[in-house]
Amino acid sequence: MGEPNNGIVLYHYSFSPVARRVLWYLSLRGIDYAECKQPPVLPRPDLSRLNIRYRRIPLCAIGRDIYCDSRIILRKLEELFPNSTLSASTPDEKVIEKLLEVWNMESSVFSRASQLIPTSMPLLNDPKFTKDREDYSGRSWSKEKIAANRPEALAAIRSAFSILETTFLADGREWLLKTDQPKLADIEAIWTFDWLNGLKGALPKELISDKQYPKVFAWITRFNDALKAAKAKAPKPASLIGDAAAEQILNASFVDKDLGVDPSDPLGLQQGTEVEVFPIDSGSHHHDQGRLIGLTEDEIVLGIEANGKELRLHYPRTGFRIIAATGKAQPKL
């Protein structure tokens, strides 16, 4: 793309299970990028520099286009960096890839997995962390509430392990699409289970281990071996502090195409309307406000201003809400 590190700046923190989806993708494809590490809790001044209120991690800037939510990040990396070695190769495989994304991200699999965080985790003794996560999730993060939710969450996750064991992996295949290397479909499926496997105390060994689900745990091991080999070959990401990351982004060009606003959209919004956009499942207290410059059945694009420059924030349509702006309007550019 003619810009440092392909114009990519990934905002994340090291133990975010959702951010690992994107980190794995970049490593397995060997794509050069820069990263700007963030604290696990608010505030995040690095993002405030860009006038971004969206609070979830990861975010990925490619040029002056900033993608919010890992689903759209992976989709745009596939589009903007073609000839992907991770892409599904047939329509049937693409369907499986998409259904696995929805299964983990939009159904209850990850939300139930997050309820298996062990009450012994040191961060649960930090009031700043628990208050932040209550703001993020809209539910109590008291140890008592976590313990009360655990039996139902454990039942749901056992069922999810069983689905993988007895369907996709039942015939002994190494990867979900019967390929000779992991694909995006594997990333879409494995991230929740790999995260739980590495979270000490989350999974009771008498119920969920390689004894009950040998094919799933062998798949997790294969994936981590493949990832380790890919990381050894991939470019090491540049590490940027907040000021440097913001400068690189603000001085870049836009990379994505103009979508326009679909006139048949049920909301009936006009291009240029001042709106607020926010996720409806988590982090919903944090609204970005700006000019609506793109709206399709798959994507929302919001124009905002930061330091006199226009940025474009991109969101998936699913899981996000658009409302008329109620605060001070963003300056017109």
SSE blueprint and pairings:
Layout lengths: L7 E5 L4 H13 L4 E4 L7 H4 L10 E4 L2 E4 L1 H11 L10 H15 L3 H6 L12 H11 L5 H24 L17 H15 L15 H20 L4 E2 L2 H9 L9 E2 L12 E6 L8 E8 L3 E8 L2 E8 L3 E5 L9
Parallel strand pairs: 1-2, 2-5, 4-10, 6-8
Antiparallel strand pairs: 1-3, 3-4, 7-8, 7-11, 8-9, 9-10
Give a quick set of tags describing it.
alpha/beta; Glutaredoxin; Glutathione S-transferase Yfyf (Class Pi), Chain A, domain 2; 10 helices; disordered C terminus; GST N-terminal domain-containing protein; Glutathione_S-Trfase_N; Thioredoxin-like_sf
Element-by-element helix/strand order: EHEHEEHHHHHHHEHEEEEEE
| Topology, number of strands | 11
Give me the number of helical elements.
Answer: 10
Q: Which structural category do the helix and sheet elements fall into?
A: alpha/beta
As for the number of domains, it is: 2
CATH class membership of the largest domain: Alpha Beta
The low-pLDDT segments are 329-333
Average pLDDT across residues? 95
Portion of residues within helices: 25-40%
The major β-sheet equals: 11 strands, mixed
Shape: globular
N-end to C-end Cα span:
25 Å
Pfam family, one: GST_N_3
Organism: Cladophialophora chaetospira
Protein name: GST N-terminal domain-containing protein
Domain GST N-terminal: 6-85
